[in-house]
C-alpha cells in the first residue's frame, strides 16, 4: 500500500475522497446518507459492489431510484461502464470529473480489501480520509442473527477481525481518520456530523440532519437507513417480517435522540458470554470506548 506522502493532498474544505470503513450493520448507510445532505458532499454508496469490482453482494444500480421504479439520473449505464473500466484506483477521479458538483465524495463500501485496492492505485485519490463506522459488538451480533442467522461466536469473530484489521490498515497507511460510533450518531447526529464536517474543513449545514430532503443516489445500502426517503419506503421490500418491522420502526421517528438497545432483549446471557469469550474482542471493543 502507498504511504500517505504519495497521495495528493488539498487544503481544508477542498476535495476529498472519503472512505467509510468498518463492519457491516454499523450505521454506515445512515452516515453516508446524512453526509449527502451537505452541499459539498456526495454519497456514492457502496462502489465495491459494482459487478466488475465484485467486493460484497453484487449490485449495479441506485437503490432509491430502483425501488421507486425510476431511471437514475446519476448512475447511468455510461457512468457505470466508465467507473468500472477505470478500476478501483481511478474510479473516484472518473466520478468527480464526470459528475461535477460536490467535490467531497463518500464511498460507503466499508470493505477493507476494497480500500486497499483503491489506495494501491491511488495516483488519482485526493486528500483521502476515512470514517471508521463502528457499533457495539452486542448490537452487531444481534443484527447478524436477524439478517444472516450468524451464531454469536462467529459474529464476535467477524466484528473483531473487521475492526482490528481496519485500524491496523489505517495506522499502516497514515490515512487520517475519525471514529463514528453508531450510538453517538443515533443519540446526537448534529454533534457527530458536525465533527465529521469539521474534520473535512466544512461548516455544518442544516441538511446534515434533514438529509431526506436532498437528492441521494447511493449504490446499495441498508434498507432501514433509506426509510426516511418517502419514495423508498412506499415501495420497499424486505427478506423477512423482522427486517420489515425494524425498518418500519424508523418511519416517523425523528433523526436522533434514540438509544440502540434492541440487543438487550434479543441476546440472552449465553449469547453475550459467547461474544465476550472471543479472544481479543474485549480489548478491541475498549479501543472504541465500549466497556464489556
Topology:
Layout: E1 16-22, H1 28-35, E2 41-45, H2 63-67, H3 77-86, H4 91-99, E3 104-110, H5 112-120, E4 129-134, H6 137-148, H7 152-173, E5 177-181, H8 182-187, H9 189-199, H10 223-226, H11 230-233, H12 241-248, H13 263-266, H14 269-276, H15 281-287
Parallel strand pairs: 1-3, 1-4, 2-3, 4-5
Helix pairs in contact: 3-4, 6-7, 7-14
What does this structure look like?
With 292 residues, the protein is an alpha/beta fold. It has one domain (4-287): P-loop containing nucleotide triphosphate hydrolases (Rossmann fold, 3-Layer(aba) Sandwich), CATH 3.40.50.300. The protein is 43% helix and 10% strand. It is built from 15 helices and five strands. A five-stranded parallel sheet has the order 2-3-1-4-5, with helices on both faces. α3 packs antiparallel against α4 (91-99) and α7 packs parallel to α14. The protein is globular and about 50 Å long.
Features:
single chain, 5-stranded parallel β-sheet, disordered N terminus, 15 helices, alpha/beta, globular, 292 residues, Rossmann fold
Amino acid at each position: 500500500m502507498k504511504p500517505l506522502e504519495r497521495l495528493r493532498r488539498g487544503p481544508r474544505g477542498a476535495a476529498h475522497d472519503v472512505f467509510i470503513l468498518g463492519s457491516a450493520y454499523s450505521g454506515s448507510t445512515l452516515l453516508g446518507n446524512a453526509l449527502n445532505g451537505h452541499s459539498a458532499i456526495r454519497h456514492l454508496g457502496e462502489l465495491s459492489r459494482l459487478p466488475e469490482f465484485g467486493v460484497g453482494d453484487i449490485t449495479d444500480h441506485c437503490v432509491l431510484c430502483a425501488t421507486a421504479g425510476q431511471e437514475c439520473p446519476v448512475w447511468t449505464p455510461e457512468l457505470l461502464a466508465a467507473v468500472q473500466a477505470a478500476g478501483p484506483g481511478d474510479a473516484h477521479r472518473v466520478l468527480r470529473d464526470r459528475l461535477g458538483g460536490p467535490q467531497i465524495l463518500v464511498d460507503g463500501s466499508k470493505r477493507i480489501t476494497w480500500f486497499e485496492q483503491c489506495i494501491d492505485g491511488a495516483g488519482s485519490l485526493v486528500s483521502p480520509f476515512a470514517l471508521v463506522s463502528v457499533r457495539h459488538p452486542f448490537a452487531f451480533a444481534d443484527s447478524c442473527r436477524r439478517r444472516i442467522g450468524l451464531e454469536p461466536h462467529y459474529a464476535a469473530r467477524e466484528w473483531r477481525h473487521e475492526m482490528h484489521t481496519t485500524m491496523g490498515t489505517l495506522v499502516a497507511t497514515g490515512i487520517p481518520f475519525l471514529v463514528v460510533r453508531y450510538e453517538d450518531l443515533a443519540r446526537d447526529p448534529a454533534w457527530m456530523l458536525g465533527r465529521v464536517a469539521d474534520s473535512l474543513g466544512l461548516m455544518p449545514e442544516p441538511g446534515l440532519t434533514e438529509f431526506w430532503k436532498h437528492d441521494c443516489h447511493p449504490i446499495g445500502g441498508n434498507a432501514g437507513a433509506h426509510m426516511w426517503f418517502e419514495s423508498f419506503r412506499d415501495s420497499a421490500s424486505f427478506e423477512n417480517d423482522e427486517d420489515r418491522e425494524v425498518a418500519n420502526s424508523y418511519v416517523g421517528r425523528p433523526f436522533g435522540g434514540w438509544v440502540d438497545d434492541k440487543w438487550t432483549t434479543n441476546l440472552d446471557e449465553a449469547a453475550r458470554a459467547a461474544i465476550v469469550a472471543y479472544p481479543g474482542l474485549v480489548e478491541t471493543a475498549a479501543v472504541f470506548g465500549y466497556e464489556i
